[in-house]
Amino acid sequence: MVNIKFMKDVAIPMRDGLNLAGNVWLPDVPGKYPVILGFTGFGKDAPWSEHIGTDWGWNVAYEPWSPTLFNKVVFEANDPEFWCNYGYGIAVVDPRGLNRSPGTLARAEIDGPPGEYAMIAEGRWARDQYDTIEWMAQQDWCDGNIALSGVSVYGFSQWRVAGLNPPHLKCINPWEAMTNFYRDCMFPGGMPEIKFTQPSGEFCHPMGVPEEAWPAPGNENPPEKVEMEEDDFLQMITLPALICCNWTDHGCHARGILRAYQKISSEHKWMYTHGRLKWAEFYTSEARVIRKMFFDCFLKGTDNRILSTPSVRLGIMENEEKYTVRYEQGYPVPGTVNTKLFLDAGTGTMGKTPAIKKCSAGYKADRPGCVRFEYVFEEDTEIIGPSALHLSVSTDASDDMDLFVTMRKFDTEGKEVHLDTWIARHNTPVALGWLRLSHRELDPEKSTEIEPYLKHVIGEGDKVKQGEIVECDIPILCAGFLFRKGEKLTVEVGGLYRSGERLENQPFDYDNSVNKGNHTLYTGGEYGSYIIIPLCKFDPQRFVV
Fold this sequence. Notes:
This protein has 10 helices and 22 strands. The chain is an alpha+beta fold.
């Protein structure tokens, strides 16, 4: 192993005279190195041990991936010990106004802890990131080639600066990275999340009072906001990109990262999908090898194998422990058929032909419970991507409805099959969906049948009359799941998150509800309620052995 040279609190000058504070790790061998850079909202000096513990439902010291990371690697960042050994530098920078960097923290009027909306939609970190990239490329220890990489905040902070095309930024690696804070996390389906995304959030918080490494200049001029929709700034990105999508990061990154892969304009882009533990996957040997191939190509020019690698690494989960991996040329995956299954409230089933008889079923809107529909697979089948639920509904005691959708898998013995994620340890279902009915209006230019795109997720919306039957389309987030012949898919519609199932150490909370009285769902006849699911026949011959 190569020795590592560590430089703490490196002063990085911005165009307004303010200096950001960064940490840099380099091989302790004379030379110039490409640098893998990350901006963090949680402190460049804080290792995993300061962020993750039993309050999250974790005991990280005993997780199989963590012992070498727990007390030395910066939270959600790349591991210098690995990358320096292969001739790369690692840099982690505190943004303006956070931790050791002085200045004014970028925040929007309604924002989460590190200022996600200001960062993504308003682009307020992008100018400082641009300046950091260009300064770092000129240092005598850098060869002029910079990449952006990292998990979560290290990922979604990349979108806006990548669209600015800094001359020395050669590629990006957003690893589970939302693209719209409101849609992806704070108001999914127009539903307010009241715990994780709040400034005083119990589970997600910035560093405390900054301990500035030096004072800000008296004439500080922080970046101004440049409002832009997610599709617009994504289309501006032309750099090579290696993107990671976790099928199970529902309510945080799953929606945006999948949309980003489809929307960016990059000629060279790859997507790594999985359904395993969010952070653990980043440090696996497989993920590191793929990232190394990517960086060796676009930062060093020494290995072009990534150019002949199919664009989508498809990790399809069968259960928490068992999954299959193959490579596909593009997404949506060839062979996937968006399949319409019609709901029948009379039988509690879903089928490929519409129910003839009109039926209805309901539940108490503010109590645990749901209406459930079942479908048994006749052959081995994969679900790959997002789904959409089209419903006819009414409420008898309110002018609005909060609708929660939960898709679950049951094996041939009737036992539910879960996955393991940070959101719900060993208890994550197939997929989730949300809709506050007053936000049911769709954007016709951005919506597709399989991906309804709500026109607005904030505001009063379009209220309904008590007893009025209205139609709506509910976006359901992505899944990457294999169902064997005889296994069952259920779709639950209820008035509480996960049909009222309460989880220990649950990071998300949607209990600020408008629900009252009873909700009723209508199927059959004129009420063509259905779900559209992206199904792909499982073919063992598609897997490379």
